[in-house]
């Protein structure tokens, strides 16, 4: 695929992302994406065969970007506490943002898939877990973080973050203090 084709795919993902944020996954159709991008059905289907393919590319792009960002900061010797604070700040921002969350779309997309070792959500969980485990190990080795049960702390962070994001879509939490307290407690568990 040439440069123009790749640019079109990027434009499709950007338009679809807005739709997924506002409508969830299951309520977005290829017709909606055609209307949002101005592409004909044939033009859209030249690049993507389904909303599942588009959503999968969006999620993979988001996860790759975050994973690479953290890895580069570790390689460059950036303070583990600074990296953690940036990551927790991003998570908190997403937890508090009731209008721009992919939480519902994420849940709808992954809950429609069969449970198996090849489950895409399970793969994303393992990618996230490895990334955060590496960060915590890095922080411990630099003497910035306390000795902790790394896997347990990572699971606490991931499931708290995903749980709040999903529940905000079906049970809006008016009390931002819940999310803030959760993030602050995780930080307290780690930073010396």
Automatic annotation (TrEMBL):
<protein>
    <submittedName>
        <fullName>TetR/AcrR family transcriptional regulator</fullName>
    </submittedName>
</protein>
<dbReference type="Pfam" id="PF00440">
    <property type="entry name" value="TetR_N"/>
</dbReference>
<dbReference type="InterPro" id="IPR001647">
    <property type="entry name" value="HTH_TetR"/>
</dbReference>
<keyword id="KW-0804">Transcription</keyword>
<feature type="domain" description="HTH tetR-type">
    <location>
        <begin position="6"/>
        <end position="66"/>
    </location>
</feature>
<feature type="DNA-binding region" description="H-T-H motif">
    <location>
        <begin position="29"/>
        <end position="48"/>
    </location>
</feature>
<keyword id="KW-0238">DNA-binding</keyword>
<keyword id="KW-0805">Transcription regulation</keyword>
């Amino acid at each position: 695929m040439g440069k123009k084709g790749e640019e079109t795919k990027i434009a499709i993902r950007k338009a679809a992302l807005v739709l997924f944020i506002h409508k969830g996954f299951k309520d977005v159709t290829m017709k909606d994406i055609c209307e949002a991008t101005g592409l004909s059905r044939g033009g859209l289907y030249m690049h993507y065969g389904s909303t599942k393919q588009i959503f999968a590319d969006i999620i993979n792009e988001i996860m790759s970007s975050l994973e690479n960002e953290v890895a580069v900061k570790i390689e460059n010797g950036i303070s583990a506490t600074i990296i953690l604070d940036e990551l927790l700040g991003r998570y908190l921002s997403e937890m508090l943002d009731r209008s721009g969350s992919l939480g519902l779309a994420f849940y709808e997309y992954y809950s429609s898939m069969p449970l198996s070792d090849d489950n895409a959500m399970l793969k994303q969980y393992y990618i996230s877990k490895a990334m955060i485990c590496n960060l915590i190990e890095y922080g411990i080795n630099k003497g910035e973080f306390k000795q902790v049960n790394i896997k347990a702390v990572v699971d606490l962070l991931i499931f708290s973050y995903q749980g709040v994001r999903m529940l905000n879509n079906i049970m809006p939490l008016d009390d931002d203090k819940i999310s803030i307290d959760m993030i602050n407690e995780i930080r307290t568990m780690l930073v010396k």
